[in-house]
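Researcher: We're reviewing a set of sequences before deciding which ones to prioritize for further study. For each one, I'd like a predicted 3D structure that I can look through quickly. This is tRNA-uridine aminocarboxypropyltransferase. If possible, include the structure in token form so it fits the rest of the review sheet.
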Amino acid sequence: MENVCALAGASNQGSSTIASDTPQEPFTSKKRQMCELCGRPRNICLCDTIAPLPSVPRFGILTHPREARKVQNTGRLAHLCLTNSVYCEGVDFTEDATVNEVLADPRLVSYILYPDENAMDLSIMSSTEIWEVFGERAMFWVVDGTWNNAGKMIRESNNLKDLPKVAFSPPQQSRFAIRKQPKEFCYSSIESIAYIIDRFSCRNGLVTTDSSKQADLLMRVFMRMVDMQIECEENRRLSHQSSVSTNHIEYDTPDV
Ligand SMILES: [Zn+2]
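Model: Here's the predicted structure for tRNA-uridine aminocarboxypropyltransferase, in token form for your review sheet.
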């Protein structure tokens, strides 16, 4: 879920606390031009920030339809950044051909990023352990939705619900400043994926340049998105203030 799956030991609680499902930029119009690639309005398109790369490990992003419609959806952005990732929208993936094809690929071993009592905690594993346990064949499925939706998606997907689960404790608060998080240390999907790639970036004591680049790319795209959103919020606030001020002057002008 946007935010949910990454957390070790977090409980499935409450409904979405997403601040808004709608774009926040101040210059919205009903005829907004949308970028077909990143799915964002053209005035806040992020495609020029994206320089796609393949990743180790690989990722499958399972996005709830409601999440897919949000301008701030980071699962789609992560998919655009990672050329060997898989992106699927839906709720029940039991019959999803793409998901089943990946699950059946003998070159890959699937795990699902979701916190429960049996989840393996990536944050307490050393780099050596991570490579020993998961290795190059690891395929992580990231559920992109709210807490409630993610739990439902996993429960209803017979092909996913019994996959081994992994989780982690985010080392710092999410930088997803524009959305309220269900818990203080929830991460967005793109932050979660960047974190996992970063945990794989050290192998046999050596930091791999490729993994560092991938994690950096994801966070660069993410922070660009956050900056754009903050800028839009600020413009909207100033626009609102200006409007209030104008109204106030008109109100105070005595009738003649
Ligand atoms: Zn775009």
